[in-house]
Write a structure and sequence with these properties.
With 241 residues, the protein is α/β, with parallel strands linked by helices. It folds into two domains: 12-18 and 36-161, Aminopeptidase; 166-241, N-terminal domain of TfIIb, CATH 2.20.25. The chain contains three helices and ten strands, in the order αββαββαββββββ. The chain has helices at residues 29-41, 76-85, 128-149, and strands at 54-58, 64-70, 91-96, 114-119, 161-163, 167-168, 181-183, 202-204, 209-210, 239-240. It has a five-stranded mixed sheet with strand order 1-4-2-3-5, with helices on one face. Strands 7-8-9 form a three-stranded antiparallel sheet, with no helix packed on it. The protein has a two-stranded antiparallel ribbon with strand order 6-10. The longest helix has 22 residues, at 128-149. It is globular. Residues 158-207 form the AstE/AspA barrel-sandwich hybrid domain. It is found in: Cytoplasm. Its cofactor is Zn(2+).
Length: 241
């Protein structure tokens, strides 16, 4: 907290795919803590693992409220309920195209985990509106689970879902690996908006516009891949389709 950063040595939320790896004297604190949580709530992939972990995240990216789940965990009905109950921000669904057993996130320790991500919120800043949205989403989730466990039949219907395809790094200096561009002003804060071939993507520090070379149309979206998600600047995995 003193450094006002999400992590010091390693992102703990990326450590749960090796939650049983040997610990050494040089292992970062986050790796050690991930194994402690796996032993407490798992072990991951076992029948003894806890039924559900809902991992709560905030983000510097303008994601609104996003429910993130895996191909083996269907939370679409909860998402549809959330969309009808929560109206202050857009409620979206992001599906990661792999089973929860292959995931590295904290919620993957449980058998039916998913995450809720809300933004934008800068580091070191308390925003009441973001807190209220997350609290409303958590309360609704708990109520939905109680109803599900009691046999409630929920109304069906279509739900738009985004599917992660690939991640893309920012342009960097080939020798120093420092950033040479920022997200283009026309794209900043427009997570999940349609991006067409020829639309501005990056704006270099020498004031040049960089356009996408990828197949379009696509929807830039946010998870590990935010429009300007600050925590991912060092990791070379910044945004994606």
């Amino acid at each position: 907290m003193a450094l006002c950063r999400r992590y010091i040595d390693k992102d703990m939320n990326c450590c749960f795919n090796r939650a049983t790896s040997p610990i050494t004297d040089s292992s970062p604190y986050e790796v050690r803590r991930a194994q402690e949580l796996n032993n407490l709530l798992g072990p991951k992939g076992s029948t003894d693992a806890i039924d559900l972990i809902c991992d709560l995240h905030n983000t510097t990216a303008n994601m609104g409220l996003t429910l993130i789940h895996y191909t083996t965990s269907d939370w679409v009905t909860l998402a549809r309920t959330s969309q009808t109950k929560i109206t202050k921000v857009p409620v979206r669904v992001l599906v990661l195209d792999f089973p929860i057993s292959d995931a590295y996130n904290f919620e993957s320790v449980s058998r039916h985990g998913f995450s809720i991500e809300v933004g934008p919120q800068p580091h070191g800043v308390v925003r009441a509106d973001i807190y209220i949205i997350m609290k409303e989403a958590v309360d609704l989730t708990i109520d939905w689970i109680h109803k599900f466990n009691s046999g409630t039949v929920f109304e069906g219907g279509d739900v738009e879902a985004f599917k992660f395809i690939k991640s893309v790094d920012y342009p960097r200096d080939p020798e120093t690996r420092t950033l040479t561009s920022a997200i283009h002003p026309q794209l900043q804060d427009r997570d999940f908006c349609l991006l067409m071939r020829g639309d501005p993507l990056f704006f270099t520090f020498s004031r040049e516009t960089v356009k996408p070379l990828y197949d379009c149309p696509i929807y830039p979206l946010a998870h590990n891949v935010h429009w300007n998600g600050q925590m991912y600047f060092p990791s070379q995995k910044k945004f994606g389709w």
